[in-house]
Amino acid sequence: MSAPVTLLVNPAAGGGRALKVLPGVQARLSAAGIEQDVRSTNSLDHGRALAREAAAAGRTVVTLSGDGLVGAVAGALAGVDGAVMGVLPGGRGNDFARVAGIPPDAVEACEVIVDGVVRPVDLGEVDGSPFIGIASLGFDSDANRIANAASARLGNLVYAYGALRALVSWTPAAFTVTVDGEEHTFSGWSVAAANSKAYGGGMFLAPDADLHDGKLDVVFEAHCSRLRFLRILPMLFKGTHVEQPEITVLRGREVSVEADRPFTVYADGDPIGELPATIRCRPGAVSVLLPPESSVAR
Questions:
Q1: Which InterPro entries does the record cross-reference, listed alphabetically (predicted)?
Q2: What is d(CA 183, CA 37) in angstroms, rounded to the nearest whole number?
Q3: Architecture of domain 130-283
């Protein structure tokens, strides 16, 4: 790769992890002869603006951050002619990197920036707001809100912490989910529309989702006891929960969701919309540097 790079760094990502690994990342890219500049982001909107500015100047936009900035930049560059983004893991969850086969060590992951292959990647969107990973709501709304307010010292455990705290006050909700025109109603825990396989720091909610297939995997969990929920929860780390009778998995291009009470929709770790919501797939919307022999995580 010879195009100059703009590194977008979220200073707060991963409890400051991004800043700690930045010198090593810069040294590795410089050793490969890649000219670079570094820009710190102070919000997702700021990151989007910086990404568009860099792309307009013909620079490859590389995020050193968590999934929130990855999704924001991907959305900002979607449909922009010639725009290319790269991803270096610098947050707590780093689920996009995990699924895409990007090494978990940011300096090692620089090899993907140096020798990677540009491939089109699908995006999802919630009422027009783009995301790259998984949009979810219901119980997940409560768990995400709690996790986002928790101490960064918890690391990846913050998502499990959020789920356990949310469990205390959770009551089942009634959902109506329509996938490509087919309606499903149920009482239960959550609904998710997955562009990617994983969220929450390695939870494989949608183990068969594909970043390149032009569809969303729709996963929802029907009502069960709290004890049963706690037994299913660890299965997410291997993706085996989809074998349980409480779990339904569908696939489609457009999903609409309603519920009997308000829920915030979260995606890439951040709030992205409110119910009722329509979630769509945008096939091949953004060009991303991926490993030459990208092995999708299982």
A1: ATP-NAD_kinase_N, Diacylglycerol/lipid_kinase, Diacylglycerol_kinase_cat_dom, Lipid_Phosphate_FormReg, NAD/diacylglycerol_kinase_sf, YegS/DAGK_C
A2: 49
A3: Sandwich (2.60)
Domain boundaries, given as residue ranges, for the chain: 5-115, 130-283
Which CATH topology does 5-115 take? Rossmann fold (3.40.50)
Catalytic residues: 270
> Is the pLDDT score of 155 beyond 90?
no
Q: pTM of the full predicted structure?
A: 0.92
